[in-house]
Amino acid sequence: MSNNPKGRIGPQTGDKLTPLQVANMRAGLYRKVENQIEDAHKVVMGKKEWSPTQARVFSAMLGKVMPDLTAQFVQHEHTLSENPEKLSRSQLEAIASGMNNIIDVSATEDAE
């Protein structure tokens, strides 16, 4: 097991990488993945074949530059005056779409 979690320590000197160095590494990986997108599309369309190892490597590299959206966790808090089981479908859909966060306001004129 490596003593270098997430690759943030330079291999030769043991010094920590600067944010610029990390950004440059990520940009380089992005360029490599970007160059393979057309080939990946050909594989998906059946015009080209990749070995399982090639597909896994591409998937791992893609995951580094474009994380899986399902991996992100977002917590939504709602205050309900009723039990969810008693709400109508339209009420539940309004909560899910965030419509209950819209605030009704009316314009007022300032008296100067």
In short:
The chain is mainly α and 112 residues long.
Structural description of this entry:
The protein is mainly α. The protein has a domain at 5-68. Helices cover 44% and strands 0% of the residues. α1 (19-44) packs across α2. The longest helix has 26 residues, at 19-44.
Mean pLDDT comes to 75
Low-pLDDT runs of 5+ residues are none
Net shape: extended
Largest β-sheet summary = none
Radius of gyration: 25 Å
Number of E-state strands: 0
End-to-end Cα distance: 71 Å
List the total number of helices: 3
Supply the key terms.
mainly alpha, extended, 44% helix, 3 helices, single chain, 112 residues, 0% strand
Question: In terms of topology, how is this protein built?
Answer:
Elements: H1 19-44, H2 52-65, H3 89-97
Helix pairs in contact: 1-2
